[in-house]
Amino acid sequence: MPAVFLKERSFIRVAGAEAEPFLHNLVTTDLASLGADEARPGALLTPQGKILFDFMIWRDGPGFLIETDTAQREGLLKRLTMYRLRAKVDFAAEDLNGVTVAWGDAVTGGAEDSRFAKAGIVLTRAPGEHGSDAAALYDELRIASGVAVSGRDFALQDAFPHDVLMDLNGGLGFRKGCYVGQEVVSRMHHRGTARRRVVIVKGNAGLPASGTELTAGSKPIGTLGSTEGDIGLAIVRIDRAGEAIAGGTTIQAGNVEVSLSLPSWSGLSFPASADEASA
After folding, report:
1. Where are the beta strands (DSSP E) in 104-228?
2. Residue 85: Cβ-neighbour burial (10 angstroms; 0-12, 13-18, 19+)
3. Is the pLDDT assigned to residue 29 strictly greater than 90?
4. Of these four, 46, 77, 225, 273, which has the most CB atoms within 10 Å of its CB?
5. By percentage, how much of the chain surpasses pLDDT 70?
6. Quick one: which of 118, 238, 230, 236 has its CA closest to 169?
7. d(CA 214, CA 254)
8. For the chain, what is the largest distance between any 2 Cα atoms, rounded to a whole number of angstroms?
9. Residue 178, pLDDT above cutoff 90
């Protein structure tokens, strides 16, 4: 059972009589359906519908734990406090250092990550250091599962939730009331206008650095994110990628020829034509 300690993760505890309705009406995650031992992705959006902060969230006693990148925690804490107004809710930066992710048949304890569950993998998250396996093991699993993270696969305030598959991995609630940015996200969902998606990249050699442009012929189609050897993630225009694949056009990351695939669990496919992309 691999267990990897991710040290650059921190926690915010959200408690109080109105903690659940406050968060439910603010973030993208549908907390009303969140199970007791389930961790789901979520985001606080800009009014324009882009991801301002991203995180994992799970129930902890009567309240919630929000796990986010350490570099984001103070900014997220300030933004939550700004929205509090008169709500009966309290926030605290938890004195917990890092999170341990563990996966495999024998895994026990922690909150099960819904993003990996979609891919048929039982992976749990638990605060603190409980494992010493190499971080590369987790990155390889994450990349193979099509799980994108901010800072490595996309920049905050530059991506919509659909771009990083939040509409499919449990991070977006479409049966809940309004939240910040909800109108834009809902319109994108119901009109089927999401064109940028996370794809898995396989190179015919080691992949170049994160941030390298992906091209089909001479046309840019996306940007490379996380990499481990010859595999990686990228957010691409799937309409342009689909056209290239259908036409037999070579796709490259820098000078490395690559093939692209959408995560199998997503149910998505590359549109083969402009008409199909707009259907």
Report:
1. 111-113, 123-127, 196-203, 213-216, 219-228
2. exposed
3. yes
4. 225
5. 97
6. 118
7. 7
8. 59
9. no
**Beta-carbon count within 10 A of 135 CB:** 12
For residue 32, give both structure tokens. Answer: 């009303």
Which residues are CB-contacts of 98 (< 8 A; sequence separation ≥ 6)?
Answer: 5, 6, 7, 8, 9, 10, 127, 128, 129
Q: Are 13 and 92 in contact (CB under 8 A)?
A: yes
pLDDT in tens, 238-263: 999 999 999 999 999 999 999 999 99
Residue 175 pLDDT:
84
Reduced to 3 states (helix: H, G, I; strand: E, B; else coil), residue 82 is helix
| Domains of the chain, first to last | 3-188 (3.30.1360.120), 195-277 (2.40.30.110)
Q: Which two tokens stand for residue 177?
A: 């009331």
Q: Give the H/E segment covering residue 21.
A: helix 19-24
Q: What is the four-CA torsion angle of 272, 273, 274, 278, rounded to 10 degrees?
A: -50
Structure tokens at 71: 């570099």
Q: Where are the alpha helices (DSSP H) in 85-231?
A: 114-117, 135-144, 182-191
- Give the integer Cα–Cα distance in Å for 233 and 262: 10
Residue 21: partners with Cβ closer than 8 Å, 6 or more residues away: none
Q: Per-residue b/e over 7-32, b at no fewer than 16 CB within 10 Å?
A: eebbbbbbeeeebbebbbbbbbbbbe
* CB 111 within 8 Å of CB 82: no
Of 10, 122, 21, nearest to 63 by C-alpha is: 21
- Determine the Cα angle at 197 with ends 204 and 164, to 5°: 110
The owner of tokens 């915010």 is 12
